[in-house]
Amino acid sequence: MPNFSPADEIGDGFRIPYLEQWMSLPVIIRIAVVFIVISTLFIVYIQFRIWITRYNGYLHEKRTRKVLPVIDTLIAEEILMKSDAGGHARINFDAFRLPLFYNRRNRQILIDRLINYKRSFTGSTGDLLRQLFLELELDKMSAKKMKRRSWNMKVRGIRELTGMDIAISDVNILPLTNSKRHELRAEARNAYIKLSKNEPFKFFDISSEPLLDWDQIELFKTITTTENIAIPNFARWVTYSNNKSIISFCLKLIVHYNQQDAAPAVLKLLDNKDHILRAEAIYCLGKLKYEPAEPQLIHIYSNQPLNCQLQILKAVGRMATGESTYFLRQEFMYSTDFDIRKNAAMSFIRNASPEFINELLEASNEENKLILKHSMNPLIKY
Amino acid sequence: MHAIASWLGTFYEGTVFIYGTVLLIIYALLALLSYGAIRLFLKKETYTNYNNLLNSELAPGISVLAPAYNEGLSIIMNVQSLLTLNYPVFEIILINDGSTDNSIEQLVREFELVPVDFAYNPRIRTQPIVSIYRSTNAAFGKLTVIDKVNGKSKADAVNAGINVSSFDYFVCTDVDCILDKDALLKLIKPVMDEPHNRVIATGATLRIANSCIIDKGVILQMKPPRNLIARFQEMEYVRAFMLGKMGWSRINCVPNVSGGLGLFDKEIATKAGGYDPMSFGEDMELMVRMCRYACDNGIRYAIRYIPTTLCWTEGPSTIRVFKLQRTRWARGLAQLMYAHFKMLFNPRYGRMGLITFPYNFFFELLAPIVEITGILYYIYLIVTGGVNYKYALLLLLFVYSYSIMITTIAILWDQLAFRHYKSWKEVLLLCSTAFLEFALYHPLIVIFSLRGYYYFLTGKKHSWGNMQRQGFGQQKTT
Predict the structure, then answer these.
(1) Nearest CA to B263 among B294, B301, B303?
(2) DSSP secondary-structure letter at A2?
(3) Is the predicted pLDDT of residue B468 greater than 90, yes or no?
(4) B416 CB near a chain A CB, below 8 Å?
């Protein structure tokens, strides 16, 4: 071990304590010592950060607890009560111009609260809330967020404006519907559908990026819940769009709006090379109960992959014309695939008469009997 | 002879040095990666409205599989809790794996069950199913109970559940786990939100429920366990999920989705052969086989983790039960490595073969062996007078402080994201537990792991591995 002495000398009189002893230690030990110091300092720092994080959280909660009742009282007195009183009452927007809201964080709480209220109220109350948002120039705060570089601030800005039904110009929003950042893309599409006065579905034409399943959930909600939106015939995109996810989404909307006149366009999708899209088209035809498709579905059945075959069996069951009973019976009796037999049985039960069902029950082997009983049992859903 | 011994000593020291250095670097990288992953998750979470999915007719169906063996103490409360999950289209499949207690009688009575003629496709071979029950009460219409012959493993029970399940995705959990009400909504989101890959599994953070305040199967308040062994596990879970799994998730290298709660793609899981009933680490084993299947069939896959705590489980609170659990886990890991050794450094298996598997092999499987050989080598050096005690102490201090730092970082990430625990003191209690880990908890894990490896080598018989639980139903409600 080196002999430690309290001081070393460099040059003419400048001394670094213990330098020579330090340098005489093996490199590994020196690194270890450095890391011990770093780790110890870091542990202390992290403890401090944890404490700060919790304290900030506590302050935020405290601030929210203080500000929210003020906002709620003002909204109740100035908006809710006066909108109940009818169109004659004058709203005093100045009541909201409190010093409390000069603070940015408090203003953000106000924005969030207004959006929350706007979600719960439509009609004249909703309009007053929107007017208040504009009067207090909170839209400028949201628009500023849209101009920020970070995608999440842009999303926040769009969401705030959309939440308050504030129009965003097509020039600003349309390019974002094709953004590479999918969260931003999804938000912009939602906003466009909700706010565009002219052609809310225009982005379906220009969209090259895929519509993810999650985006479809959000868009579906927006489309089906936005008031005064002109619902187009979605067959247009089923026929012309090159974006498979848009076609898939349109099929779901066709089912939701029961667009019978879109069925011929959907029928053409049966020639599509993508089997997933074909299966979705078959599902759509079944849900529409588009009976003219039944012969074609049965005709193509034998050339289809399993997922499409299962959808054809379900679709035929939903159409319940009674014309494919022998086809279903055939599939049930002679298919080697369990899922085909199960789906054929379920559709058969819907289509066939009780006598025909009993006849099949008697002619079936043990496993098929079980499948039929399963299909007939009202306690079993799937 | 002396020269050979000296050379061997130098070689060993050098190897261990490189091993340790790489491990420390990996931990540092995981800390950075997990920070990025958590931040991104939180940003996205701000704009996510789960109500859109909750009310949507486009939501994919999910089957929740809950295997149970002699869980009569809390089974009713746990099933009731599962039935209240928030999700538009789901079914609960409870698999009673030949329990010897009165679980099935309790279930039949409480949920008004009757046996039904249920047709299912036994794609995965399991022990025979005795009966399948459905409820005559529409309020329990989502519940299906399978009563089967004991298969001596959770894997066999879950496989039976997979065979009976109706939907394209299944969530595997333990019946004694407490799930967050929005667990299904949150687990399915990464599947629906992935632009390029097929998400074959999603996991979420698990925590220890031992001292939490629970009311009717709902966690009212999270608390660090009062029991020291359970608290060590809580700390270990925070580190493993917030730092480990989130870090790996960032680079799509998640090694394992926990058996306590995970959502899986049923098609891939079934085609991969389902859970292996002979495995002691069935969750990890399935994950590896699913990845293997995806690679073999050219499927671009992803496994995702979310940092949100969605599941609470009762952790072992005695050394005896803890020993059983960890021995089983270690044995499972050894089995897994042995069965899939071909994947090690095999570029055919992408990240799994080149990153995840080597990490598990060197830093999970070999770690206890390296540690025990290190201790033996140390003893040898002490006997031969070859130890420089001051340097040894410094090196020990270095490893000690580094490990505490890593654990504390994980707790910080947890606090930055969720601020679990009501008071600062509770966080401090958990942080302080890290100081004792090195001396009290870690040696136990090494010993139990070695015990597991020994059982693997000697082929000791296995069973369900049921822990003796107190049951949440017995805890005082608040």
Answers:
(1) B303
(2) -
(3) no
(4) yes
